[in-house]
Amino acid sequence: MSRGRIIRDTLAAVTIVNIGVIWVAQAAANSPTRPPDLAKGAVIAAQGLPPSVPPCAQCHAYNGASDGSGAFPRIAGQSAFYLAKELRDYASRVRTNAVMTPIAKALSSGGIADVTAYYASVKAPYLPLASPDAMLIERGGQLAKIGDARKDLQACDSCHGPGGAGEPPAIPYLAGQYEHYIALQLTMWKRGLRNNSPDAMADVAKRLDAQDIAAVAAYFQQVDASAPAATQPMK
Ligand code: HEC
Ligand code: HEC
Q: Of 13, 142, 207, 224, which residue has the fewest beta carbons closer than 10 angstroms?
């Protein structure tokens, strides 16, 4: 074997080994091997990670109930899988928001795992809110439980579970979620401004008019999430 050939083969082998090392390092960075740390997640919620990540509690409250304004979603007890997916979607801009996109981008995958595990574990009370229009709630309840055959719209509960209690891990609860937030998200999907559920939610939202959106949003906000239908989804 010539000297040149040996050097060439050695270089090729070294290159392959290097590629292997890079690949293993990347795989380790992408899939955190340690389990999520709730205590670390609680610190992110309370204090953020200065200077780039503000405390989540500023807007979502330390217990994840946010506040009654409905500007911020309730995230307490939502599955860690769903919350983490939304943060990745904000970071990749398939879902965009002026506040959440930079926060999500500043979190590491480990930070996302920790803070979402923390909020998923919290049981927060539901804030007392003014009860909206009874007619609106009735119409919203029909859409939620039965859907609307004329619009070829299936019941929300067929995916979100009885009483909108959620079908973890992928489908969030709507029971007790804020009216204002639900209405905004449905409008964003309808207008093509939230793009992270192209098959399910974009299609559903396009079948809803403004009155339907107001109705389902008012209905789900007042669903008692502690009622049996909401807490014991039929499997
Ligand atoms: C300054 C206010 C603010 C802070 C601080 C904040 N958020 Fe948010 N968060 C929002 C707003 C507003 C939305 C709704 C945005 C939208 O319409 O998509 C939101 C939405 C979310 C969602 C999507 C929930 C859902 O039901 O789809 C998650 C998850 C979330 N925030 C997690 C966090 C975490 C974790 C932190 C801390 C690291 C945090 N947020 C800090 C304002 C904030
Ligand atoms: C075919 C299944 C399906 C049906 C039917 C459905 N949803 Fe959804 N919905 C989903 C999925 C999946 C998600 C999670 C999307 C994501 O990953 O961001 C979702 C998310 C949502 C969200 C966002 C919640 C949050 O915290 O941001 C709202 C609001 C919502 N749905 C309302 C409704 C309403 C109201 C109806 C009935 C009119 C309905 N959905 C019917 C599958 C469905």
A: 13
